[in-house]
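ok, trying the design again with the full structure, not the truncated one.
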């Protein structure tokens, strides 16, 4: 049985001018110990989706329709106090800017201890310290650095400590939103490998959000490609990364892979400009129609249909059979 089930989830933002849909009828499920990457360019709705799962949308954002079931619980119907307990304890998050979120005047170890003791008031201080030491071992920070202040840590260490914090309550699911984007490439790779190893070792489910399909493919079992608020292709990593079908996925990959033929670039074209989902989402047509080198009359006149490429690989495109 799936740990997380997202059904027909539509999320919108109210602005002074309009109500704009930022994620449109999103469906997916995730089992314990599995990982899914949500990939797409800036503004396509990835963060909105992650925030909705945590019920942390900004005040003008709301779930318009759909259902989120987590471990049998209807997350959208959960009273706030219970949702508060689910957050961190069952579903933890790692954000791009998280490493800057440490309180600068409090030692990092104390901040992690506080999180552990808030969620488990019965734990003794000594037990909690032991837990932090184990977490530091896991994320490979020497335990004599636990009680340093944030300014004494490098960027990579701060982000590793955020991972330790996310793991502190033994979550079943981690949502990681661009967790390494602010770091240099070498540190980025080390942290991604760490996330992958911990996820496997602890059998945690992972939702990994990134604009970089290469990063997602390196970490996740499954990939969902998002364009203007819609998932347009979804499948196992090898299927989407090695045999991409949707013209947008191919464009995304062609901007990623430039050498030695893991993927033959069939749709060489300029990368899509930043998207403004609001304009396209109200129409039922494919949001990529104006950029697609293969768009046909059918694409301009009918909504795209989901097609099954394999039992685990599907694409929202009228062209793909
Ligand atoms: N608080 C808000 N009010 C109104 N519109 C918003 C708000 N937050 C996001 N949006 C809009 O919703 C859409 C999706 O934004 P979102 O941040 O989820 O995209 P994203 O794919 O995560 O982009 P990025 O990678 O840049 O964070 C965008 O068009 C964005 O402008």
């Amino acid at each position: 049985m799936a740990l997380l089930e997202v059904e027909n989830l539509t999320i919108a933002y109210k602005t002074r001018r309009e109500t704009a849909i930022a994620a449109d009828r999103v469906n997916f499920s995730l089992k314990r110990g599995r990982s899914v990457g949500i990939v797409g360019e800036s503004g396509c709705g990835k963060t909105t989706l992650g925030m909705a799962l945590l019920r942390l949308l900004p005040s003008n954002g709301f779930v318009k329709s759909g259902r989120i079931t987590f471990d049998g619980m209807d997350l959208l119907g959960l009273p706030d106090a219970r949702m508060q307990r689910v957050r961190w304890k069952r579903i933890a998050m790692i954000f791009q800017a998280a490493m800057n979120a440490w309180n600068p005047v409090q030692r990092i170890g104390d901040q992690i201890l506080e999180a552990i003791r808030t969620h488990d008031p019965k734990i003794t201080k000594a037990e909690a310290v032991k837990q932090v030491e184990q977490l530091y071992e896991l994320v490979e920070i020497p335990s004599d650095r636990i009680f340093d202040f944030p300014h004494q840590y490098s960027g990579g260490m701060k982000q590793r400590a955020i991972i330790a914090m996310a793991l502190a309550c033994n979550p079943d699911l981690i949502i990681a939103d661009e967790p390494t984007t602010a770091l240099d490439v070498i540190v980025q790779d080390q942290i991604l490998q760490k996330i992958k190893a911990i996820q496997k070792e602890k059998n945690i489910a992972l939702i990994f959000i990134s604009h970089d399909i290469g990063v997602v493919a390196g970490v996740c079992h499954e990939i969902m490609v998002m364009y203007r608020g819609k998932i347009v292709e979804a499948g196992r990593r090898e299927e989407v990364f090695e045999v991409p079908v949707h013209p947008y996925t191919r464009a995304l990959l062609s901007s990623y892979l430039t050498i030695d033929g893991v993927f033959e670039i069939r749709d060489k074209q300029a990368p899509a400009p930043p998207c403004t989902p609001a304009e396209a989402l109200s129409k039922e047509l494919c949001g990529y129609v104006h950029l697609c080198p293969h768009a046909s009359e059918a694409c301009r006149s009918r909504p795209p249909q989901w097609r099954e490429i394999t039992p685990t690989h599907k694409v929202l495109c009228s062209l793909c059979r």
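Keeping the full-length input from now on. The chain has two domains: 4-90+172-316, 102-168.
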